[in-house]
């Protein structure tokens, strides 16, 4: 992988020289206080053994082969290239290089301006509000930021029995014809967010989940959800079931795998025939502390 790195050290502008071209470029960074350089091969900053980005402690053998602490441990301090001991001598020059490398967020092309010391940008990606989310509509391959996804989803609004409008704090009635579809999309107009209610048919009943299609960025907020359903089988004396989830999961892509936790189970005896299911759902935005 090729990339551009920016040194954060103070230098005179005449020292800032571009070395090569790159596909991961910061661009326009040459001012009086910053010098930038391009690195042809960002992989040179990864452990050559496990390929994970190198961080603080880097070790070398007498021949100058380098390894991360995890690999030194796994290899019992024997260099895989030359069999000499490795894990005692630090490679301080490389440690200094790693510290000086600042990379942009992988979503910089989409507008994120955050920068990170090398290796930390991938941790940020999970919570970056510019991270790509996948359209929850069936047979649609669109991906985009959560805001773009909401606008894009309008093209699916006419698909009947599948998408609902709602507002935070208000109940919406959601109807499933389980023989035809197992997920519905709920569109919150004011915040411009998509939520998906999914049903998974299992031997004892149906598992219901509610998720928000968004990265886990703080600016999006947190949501709780309340679900209730009334039994179709009127012979059951207490025929209403309710479920409250204090935190709605935020996901960037729908999964069709049966969840292991955070689901609402509607037992089979509640709706004989197991073909249709009516749920009342209220999603609320939690107050930020
Ligand atoms: Zn390693
Ligand atoms: Zn070696
Ligand atoms: Zn970002
Ligand atoms: Zn779509």
Give keywords:
metal-binding, elongated, 6-stranded mixed sheet, 289 residues, mainly beta, Apoptosis, Tumor Necrosis Factor Receptor Associated Protein 2, Chain A, zinc, 10% helix, 2 domains, 4-stranded antiparallel sheet, disordered N terminus, binds zinc ion, transferase, Herpes Virus-1, 19 strands
Sheet having the most strands: 6 strands, mixed
Query: And the CATH topology of the largest domain?
Result: Apoptosis, Tumor Necrosis Factor Receptor Associated Protein 2, Chain A
Tell me the count of domains. Answer: 2
CATH class categorisation of the largest domain: Mainly Beta
Instruction: Indicate the mean pLDDT.
Output: 83
Report on this model:
- The chain is mainly beta and 289 residues long.
- The chain has two domains: 3-125, 2-Layer Sandwich (Herpes Virus-1), CATH 3.30.40.10; 133-285, Apoptosis, Tumor Necrosis Factor Receptor Associated Protein 2, Chain A, CATH 2.60.210.
- Helix content is 10%, strand content 32%.
- It has four helices and 19 strands.
- Strands 10, 12, 13, 14, 17 and 18 form a six-stranded mixed sheet that branches.
- It is elongated.
- The two termini are 41 Å apart.
- The model is unreliable at 1-33 (pLDDT under 50).
- The structure holds zinc ion (4 copies).
- One zinc ion binds next to loops.
């Amino acid at each position: 992988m090729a990339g551009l790195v920016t040194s954060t050290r103070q230098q005179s502008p005449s020292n800032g020289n571009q070395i090569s071209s790159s596909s991961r470029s910061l661009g326009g960074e040459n001012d009086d206080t910053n010098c930038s350089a391009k690195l042809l091969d960002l992989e040179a900053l990864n452990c050559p053994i496990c390929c994970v980005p190198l961080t603080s402690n880097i070790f070398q053998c007498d021949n100058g082969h380098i390894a991360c602490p995890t690999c030194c441990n796994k290899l019992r301090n024997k260099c895989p290239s030359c069999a000499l001991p490795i894990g005692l001598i630090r490679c301080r020059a490389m440690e200094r290089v790693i510290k000086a490398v600042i990379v942009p967020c992988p979503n910089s092309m989409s507008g994120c301006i955050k920068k990170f010391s090398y290796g930390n940008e991938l941790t940020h990606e999970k919570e970056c509000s510019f991270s790509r989310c996948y359209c929850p509509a069936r047979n649609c391959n669109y991906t985009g930021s959560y805001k773009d996804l909401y606008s894009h989803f309008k093209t699916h609004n006419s698909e009947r029995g599948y998408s609902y409008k709602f507002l935070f704090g208000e109940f919406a009635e959601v109807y499933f014809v389980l023989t035809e579809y197992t997920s519905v999309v709920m569109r919150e107009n004011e915040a411009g967010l998509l939520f998906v209610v999914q049903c998974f048919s299992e031997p004892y009943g149906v598992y219901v989940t509610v998720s928000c299609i968004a990265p886990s960025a703080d600016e999006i907020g947190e949501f709780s959800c309340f679900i209730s359903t009334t039994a179709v089988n009127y012979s059951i004396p207490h025929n209403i079931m309710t479920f409250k989830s204090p935190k709605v999961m935020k996901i960037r892509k729908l999964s069709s795998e049966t969840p292991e936790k955070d689901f609402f189970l509607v037992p089979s005896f509640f709706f004989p025939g197991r073909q249709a299911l009516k749920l009342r759902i209220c999603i609320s935005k939690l107050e930020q502390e």
